Amino acid sequence: MEMGGGRDALVIGAGVIGLTSAIRLQEAGWRVRVWAAEPPERTTSAVAAAIWYPYRAGPQALVKAWGERSFAVFEQLVADAETGVRMLPGIELLPRKTDPRQFPEWAAHIAGFRVADAAEVPDGRVGWSLTVPVADTGVFLRWLAARFAANGGEMEMRRIASLDEAAAYPLVVNCSGLGARELAGDAAMRPIRGQVMRVENPGLTRFWLDEYHPEGMLYIIPRGGDCILGGTADEGEEDTTPDFDVSEAIRWRCAELEPDLADARLLEHRVGLRPWRPEIRLALETLPGGGRVIHNYGHGGAGVTLSWGCAEEVVALAETI
After folding, report:
1. Is the pTM of this model over 0.85?
2. Residue 42: which region, alpha, beta or left (left: phi > 0; alpha: psi -120 to 50)?
3. How far apart are CA 5 and CA 30, in angstroms?
4. Which own/partner contact pairs does 182-186 have at CB distance under 8 Å and 24+ positions apart?
5. Could you report the average pLDDT of every consecutive run of 10 residues in the chain (321 residues)?
6. Are the C-beta atoms of residues 171 and 79 closer than 8 Å to each other?
7. Per DSSP, what are the bridge partners of residue 222?
């Protein structure tokens, strides 16, 4: 791809944050190329359960706005089966003795968000009933990559050590996730290791979220033919080797809620490193050499949840250049 002037942009990273940023820039008239250390199917995004939920991300006010915008886009994508996105009902369990009538701020725009009935939750627990978008990440990432290519974009597998390598581009968008520790020299970035199992779906049609189980967090995300069982949130851990004892503990916790999962056929173990930062970095920076970089990273466990809202913020920043 030859550069043709000031509307050329380079996006670094091919996860959901990078691809949505690239697509929105294309739609705003930019000619976009993507450089990525890994193809979409090998990014952290590919491991994600990809349920809309603003997990471990800040600042709260911006996360709320970005999340609402992304929710609206996902609602539109549900109409296209090729996106792998659908609306899924489910239950989030809360700590015992919590007042479930105190709704979170991010739930204000979710139609039908309510306190779960006693019959919907285990004895002694309370929770919320909600319906939110869920993406089959394998399908969704392929759809994003195809949409980017159809818009004239090109993707190159290229690992870079410095933003200086992209100096020829008038605009660089840094969506390198955990790689921003080195690429942007950002010591605030920390990995949060997540391990999940992918099993055959025994017929489940609702999700479960429980961050307060005494033996560890759990989530059950049915996605048609398969089901994601999670999980872990190990701060500072970077080993991506699956721990099979951890997987069995995850299955046991999940089977307490859905007994059919006890014998569901294992399809694969997965481990990903959530790219966490105390606050998401979404800002325009002018480098010493004069180059312009929009940083868009640090989304923790909410990359899919915030992707479209953050991508549109990238475009807004780009238009100020």
Report:
1. yes
2. alpha
3. 10
4. 183/12, 184/281, 184/295, 184/297, 186/277, 186/281, 186/297, 186/298
5. 69 98 98 97 95 93 96 98 97 95 95 97 96 97 98 97 93 98 97 97 98 95 94 96 97 98 97 97 91 96 97 97 88
6. no
7. 227
